[in-house]
Amino acid sequence: MSHVERMPLPKNVRYPLWRQAVSLAVLSRCCVLTLTALSFNVFASYDRSLALEQAVVATEGSFVDKTLFNLFAGLGTWDGVFFRRIAAFGYEHEQFLAFFPLYPSVVRLVSWPLSFALHTHMAILAAAVLVSNLCFIASVAAFYALSVQTVGSAKTAWIATVLYVWNPSAVFMSAAYSESIFALFCFLGLLALQRHKDWVAALCFALCAAARSNGIVFAGMFVVKELLLLRRVSRLLRLCGLLALVASPSLLFQYVSYQRICSQPNPDQALCGQSLPNPYFYIQAKYWNIGLFNYFAMSQVPNFVLALPMFLWSCWSVRFACMNRLPRSLHAILVHAADSPLAGLVAVQVWFTVIAFSVMHVQVVTRFLCCSSPLLYWAVAWYLESEAETKAATKAAATATNNTSKNITNKSNSSNSRITTKDDGSCSFIPNPPLQIFRMCVVFFCLGCILFPCFYPWT
Question: How far apart are CA 257 and CA 282, in angstroms?
C-alpha cells in the first residue's frame, strides 16, 4: 500500500442539540457554584490558607468584594492558591514552576479590567473563576461537535455530552485550575484533527502543552495518524513540523525554568548537572515526591481506593473501544487512524492511565483523565446505543418467530443475550457499566463540591 486515501468528511454536518448542551453546561456550573459557596460558608475549613486573604478583603474591600469572596473563595483552594499567586505576582518561588503559564497568564489578563472595580485579591479570584467556567462551557460545545463528527450519531453524542457535563471532576472545571482551558483546546484540537486541519490541531495542542505538562503527549496523535504515510519525505518533514509546533511551548517553559533555577548561586546539581535536565520532573520530585512508584505506600491506600473507580472506568472504556470500534489488525488500525482520532485517543488514554497509576499522586487521576479523554464518555454512549440496538433486534426476532415454540424462543433469546455480553466489551467485574459510572459521577460531583472548598482531601 503506497498511500492512504482519506475519506471525505460529510458536508453540512448538523449539531441539533448544541444549544441544549450549552444550556446544560451553564446549569451544571450554577450547581457547582451554589454547592461550593454553601460548603465554604457552612463548614469549617481544614486549612486556614485563605484566612489572611479573607481578612484583607474584609478590611479593605467593598461590599461587592466581600460578597464575591464568599461566593468564589471555595473555588480558589488547593492548587488554586498557586495559580492565583502566579497570576498576581509571577513565578516568585522555584516550586511555582511546576504550574504551566497559560492559565495564570489568561487570568492575569482578564483580571486587569476587573481590578478597576474590585480589590486586587478579589479581581484575581473573580477572573480565575470566570475564565474556568467560560472555558468549560466552551469546551462542552467543542466536545459536542467533536462527538457528533466522531461517533456519527447525534443521540449518542448527546449522551456522551451529558456525561461530560456532569463528570466526576466537575468542581475542578469551575475552580482556579487549568483543567477547563486544557479541555477546551484539547477538544478543539481533536475536532480540527477529525476535519483534517492538522496545523490548526497542532496549534490547539500547543496551547494544551502551555497549560499542562501532559499536553505534549497529544503530539503522538500525529504520529499515529501519519505512520503509514512516512515513506514520503514530504510527509516526514510535515510531521516533524507538527511535532515541533506542539512541543515548543513546553520545551520553551522548561528552558526558562532551567535558566531560572540554575542561574542561582550554588545550584542543585541534581538538576543542573544533568546532560538532559527536566526542571518539571525535578520540581515535582523535590516538592511533591512525584516519581516511579513513590506513591506506593500503606499510608496511601485510601487514595488508591479513591482513584479505583476512575481506573476501572478508564480500563473498561479502552477495552470496549478496542473490541467494538477499532479494526483487529494493526495495519487496519493505522489505516483507520488516518480518518479518525480514535486509535490515537486509545493510545493516549492508555499512556495517561499508566502514568497516573505508577508515577503521579493517584487521587488526581479523576481530573487528569476527565479533561483529556473523550473516549471515557463515548464508550458509555456506545454501550447504551448497542444495548438499545440489541433489544430492538431481539424484539424484532421474537415478533418474526411468533409461531415457534416457547422453549425454542427462550433458548434463542438466552443465546443472543450471551453473545451480546461477550461482544459488547462489558466486564464481568463491572455489572451494568453505564449505571455504575452514572452513580460515580453523581457521588463524585457532590463530594467534590463539598470537600474541595474546605481544603479536605479532594485533589
Answer: 11
pLDDT tens for residues 243-255? Answer: 999 999 999 999 9
Chain centroid to CA 406: 50
CA 409 to CA 401: how far, in whole Å? 8
Between 120-134, 317-331, 445-459, the lowest mean confidence (pLDDT) is in 317-331
Q: What pLDDT, in 10s, does the model give residues 246-296?
A: 999 999 999 999 999 998 888 888 899 888 899 999 999 999 999 999 999
Place of cell 499542562: 212
Annotate 369-404 with DSSP letters as a single string.
HHTT-THHHHHHHHHHHHHHHHHHHHHHHHHHTTTS
Residue with cell 513540523: 241
Query: Is 137 within 8 Å of 25 (Cβ atoms)?
Result: yes
**Contact predicate 457/363, CB 8 Å:** yes
d(CA 138, CA 184): 7
Whole-prediction pTM: 0.90
Q: What mean pLDDT is predicted for residues 143-167?
A: 93
For helices 51-60 and 120-151, the axis angle rounded to 10 degrees is: 120
Residue 424: partners with Cβ closer than 8 Å, 6 or more residues away: 320, 323, 324, 383, 386, 387, 390
Q: How far is CA 68 from the centre of its chain?
A: 28
Q: Is 144 exposed, middle or buried (0-12, 13-18, 19+ CB in 10 A)?
A: buried
C-alpha cell, 310: 476512575
Residues near 248 by beta carbon (within 8 Å), at least 6 away in sequence: 206, 209
pLDDT, position 47: 78
Backbone dihedral region of 196: left (phi > 0), alpha (psi from -120 to 50 degrees) or beta? left
C-alpha cell, 285: 520530585
Q: Give the pLDDT score at 392.
A: 77
Residue 9 is classified by DSSP as: P
The confidence score (pLDDT) of residue 326 equals: 83
Three cell numbers, residue 9: 468528511
Report pLDDT for 433.
Answer: 86
Amino acid at 295: Y
